[in-house]
Design brief:
This protein is α+β, with helices and mostly antiparallel strands and 99 residues long. 15% of the residues lie in helices and 23% in strands. The chain binds zinc ion (ZN) (2 copies).
Length: 99
């Protein structure tokens, strides 16, 4: 960690915030049928609730972040679960939640 000398002779510890390059966790189907990590730089995070106030937080690019509401984005597996829950006979429809 770098230190800087202040004008008054003291040294100060400088915390360098390293910007972590988050990459999209979405999967892209290759022409050979294999799925590979998308790896575009992340612009969103999955908002799927896990426990308490925790969310999935998978990093997603604009292409893989599925917007399900204002400012709410889901990753691909969680979008699938979301859609399933909204489907007839699914969890949300049983509870009478409008989609
Ligand atoms: Zn992506
Ligand atoms: Zn997710």
């Amino acid at each position: 960690m770098p230190f800087v000398k202040l004008p008054n002779g003291m040294t100060a510890h400088v915390k360098v915030a390293k910007p972590r390059a988050h990459r999209c966790a979405g999967l892209v189907k290759c022409t050979d049928g294999n799925a590979v990590r998308c790896a575009r730089s992340s612009a969103y995070q999955c908002d799927w609730p896990i426990t308490g106030d925790k969310t999935c937080d998978a990093h997603l690019c604009a292409q893989h972040a599925a917007e399900v509401g204002p400012g709410v984005h889901y990753c691909q597996p969680h979008l699938a679960r979301h859609r399933k829950a909204l489907a007839p006979g699914g969890l949300f429809s049983r509870l009478g939640v409008e989609s």
